[in-house]
Amino acid sequence: MARIFCIANQKGGVGKTTTAVNLAAGLAAQSQRVLLIDLDPQGNATMGSGIDKRQLARSVYQVLLGTAVARAVISRSAAGGYDLLPANRELAGAEVDLVDLDDRERRLKQALAAVEADYDFVLIDCPPSLSLLTINGLCCAHGVVIPMQCEYFALEGLTDLVNTIKRVHANLNPGLKIIGLLRVMFDPRMTLQQQVSAQLESHFGDKVFRTIIPRNIRLAEAPSHGVPGVAYDPAAKGAQAYLAFGAEMVERMKTL
Ligand code: ATP
Ligand code: MG
User: Fold this and answer.
1) Which residues sit with their C-beta closer than 6 Å to ligand 1?
2) 102: CA distance to ligand 2 center in Å?
3) Which residue, by CA, sits nearest to atom 28 of ligand 1?
4) 126-147 tens-digit pLDDT
5) For residue 166, is pLDDT > 80?
6) Which overall architecture, per CATH, does domain 3-253 show?
7) From CA 62, how far away is CA 130, in angstroms rounded?
8) Average pLDDT of span 87-116
């Protein structure tokens, strides 16, 4: 059975997509069968996987509306070694189009049921909001991975996300868990980041992943080449960290 994880944080630009794409490629490098679902109308995970979002005949949008089956829309990211359910700006309409449909929070869960068995991991790149799209992701997930920067305001945003996860857990998906907090874009030279990082560890204990993702320019360059950072420059510090994170996830699955 596939392990299904949302990469979520309603704060924008915190490293969700970078984490989703590189964890997908990192897990694929560990011989795991991975499906990455782009659930963001920005389509960044799609482009970062080497699939042109402007050329899609169909996307996750049709899958959510039930006018296409997932298997027909999934394509292969050759660059990443994983499968992708892509998205583009069309998906922005889903919020409105889904409102009148039955079980609007469970559309993705229903669509995934048919393909889940083909994978060891399904990763969902969520948009920077706690919208119906994110709720669809949370409804079908076993767990949430929360990338965050070690900044002063990082913890404030976390409260809203944790409350949303609690609500989904109580009303829609009793299996949902927070898997862990991932420290990203970390700069060890900044005292404040070290302090916040230490606070996270003392406050959340083993809910904080051991692996820390450093700020690394190669990770930022990779999307413009349509290649995950771990494949673009595997020797770079950022790529090495995401590969280590993939190994940590596989290890953590054994204890879940
Ligand atoms: P959004 O909320 O818009 O979906 P996001 O949370 O998905 O954003 P990303 O797109 O992954 O965030 O990252 C935001 C920017 O930071 C991107 O330009 C990305 O290339 C860059 N970035 C992410 N992680 C790193 C890193 N570890 N080192 C350097 N740059 C990074
Ligand atoms: Mg993103």
Assistant:
1) 12-18, 40, 42, 44, 128, 184-185, 213, 215-216, 219-220, 223, 238
2) 28
3) 215
4) 999 999 999 999 999 999 999 9
5) yes
6) 3-Layer(aba) Sandwich (3.40)
7) 21
8) 94
